[in-house]
């Protein structure tokens, strides 16, 4: 049922009691403690698009976010310092800053869904990204994109927060974040968000993890290959990192690793992990 509306207050203004998005509001209050810094790059998606086209011919559909999740998992596995988050309790007068580093990579995928008649963002978790193949990742993504996804057991906590009075909901949200053992099961260890289904070139958001990847649309843009300007499918990729957890050089290495994995994707297997300077001779998107 949609949120109840108060009587009209003049000039067509209504006051709406927000319920289905309360989990987002509680999250934003908590996430305000982060110190986000933003990077971006352009990714030549030629090989990814070729692989998607070949898969479609055999009746298999792969989403762009599945490739991005795969690349994120490989990158954070190779850069474990970025697979982390600030531990609860800091800043505090008597507590030293502590960082939680996770042994596995869990993706948190932002989804635009209808929840009880209202549009809301749900966070779907995709675990085991350090070793998961593309097919397994896509199966998980399809589960969350199916009809009635908002009713899945994984989102029961979100539904409960919407039913609780605001003071209790805020307290319940804060209590869930105090423990370290289940932190990755709530927020994942790397966040992925895409607006590529809309005419959006690029954006940045902070997903509560040390690294958040933000993908825009894939569009034909000029790139330089062998000294010639040609058209290629290019995606703008943003990376937001929490400066409390990692520094810019580490974040740049992660972004470079993700980009190279996507650009070197071949036959359904990601490229082997390479350093941030590898592939310097590859085509650079032009303007």
From TrEMBL:
Protein name: 2-oxoacid dehydrogenase acyltransferase catalytic domain-containing protein
InterPro entries recorded: 2-oxoacid_DH_actylTfrase, CAT-like_dom_sf
Signal peptide: none
Domain 2-oxoacid dehydrogenase acyltransferase catalytic: 188-265
Annotated region (Disordered), positions in chain: 266-287
Organism expressing this protein natively: Streptomyces daqingensis
Organism taxonomic ancestry: Bacteria, Bacillati, Actinomycetota, Actinomycetes, Kitasatosporales
Pfam families: 2-oxoacid_dh
Domain of life per record: Bacteria
Transmembrane segments: none
Sections of the chain in a coiled coil: none
């Amino acid at each position: 049922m949609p949120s109840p509306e108060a009587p009209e207050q003049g000039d067509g203004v209504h006051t709406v009691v927000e319920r289905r998005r309360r989990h987002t509001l509680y999250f934003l209050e908590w996430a305000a403690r982060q110190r986000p810094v933003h990077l971006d790059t352009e990714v030549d998606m030629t090989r990814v698009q070729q692989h998607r086209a070949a898969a479609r011919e055999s009746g298999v559909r792969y989403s762009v976010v599945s490739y991005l999740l795969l690349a994120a998992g490989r990158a954070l596995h190779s850069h474990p310092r970025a697979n982390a988050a600030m531990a609860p309790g800091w800043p505090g007068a008597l507590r030293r800053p502590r960082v939680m580093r996770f042994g596995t990579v869990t993706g948190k995928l932002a989804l635009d869904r209808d929840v009880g008649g209202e549009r809301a963002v749900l966070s779907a978790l995709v675990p085991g990204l350090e070793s998961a193949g593309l097919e397994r990742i896509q199966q998980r993504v399809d589960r969350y994109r199916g009809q009635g996804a908002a009713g899945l057991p994984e989102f029961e906590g979100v539904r409960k927060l919407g039913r609780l009075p605001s003071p209790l909901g805020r307290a319940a949200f804060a209590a869930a974040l105090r423990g370290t053992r289940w932190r990755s099961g709530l927020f994942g260890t790397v966040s992925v968000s895409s607006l590529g289904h809309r005419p959006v070139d690029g954006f940045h958001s902070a997903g509560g993890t040390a690294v958040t990847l933000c993908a825009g649309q894939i569009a034909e843009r000029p790139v330089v290959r062998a000294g010639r300007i040609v058209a290629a499918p290019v995606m703008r990729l943003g990376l937001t990192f929490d400066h409390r957890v990692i520094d810019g050089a580490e974040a740049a290495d992660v972004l470079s690793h993700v980009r190279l994995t996507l650009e070197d994707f071949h036959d359904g297997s990601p490229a082997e992990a390479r350093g941030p300077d590898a592939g310097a001779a590859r085509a650079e998107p032009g303007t």
